[in-house]
Here is the input.
Amino acid sequence: MKELRFALLVLLLAIPIPAILFNQITFPLQILASKLASGLLPLFGVPVLREGNVIELPLMKLEVAEACSGIRSLMSLFTLAVFYGYFLEKSVWRRVALVLASIPIAIAANAVRILGTGCAFSTGTRTRPWASFHEFSGWVIFLVSLVCLYLVHCSMNLFPAKRRQT
Here is the structure.
């Protein structure tokens, strides 16, 4: 049973989150992503007004929909961090640190995606290339978040784990 413990625990990640809990997590993530993106957009010269999860750009509105909350990428990155930590780290606290680091990485990555979309749509032209940017940016941002997780792991390796003396 000890050898199967990890596999059985990972199977828990395959169970869908109940809808009531999913909604309790999704809406705050939408608002957080909206706040972060609307706070960063003025740094790129884009004036914004945020009302809830709607970011008003000078020429159009950008709605951070439920699908843009980042919950899917958060769960995917969390699961990959579990596997990454299990196979590449021996220390339990380092595994936990990697898994916990995946949460702010995924949230920040989602905010950057919304920021990029806001900058792209700030021109007011909602042509097909900009819509494709929004779709494609999800993949790119997820790969960037994987690189960030790797960099966290590399930075952890700068500080070797202390071994207990017996």
Summary: The beta strands are 49-51, 54-56, 61-63. Residues 34 and 58 are 16 Å apart (CA to CA).
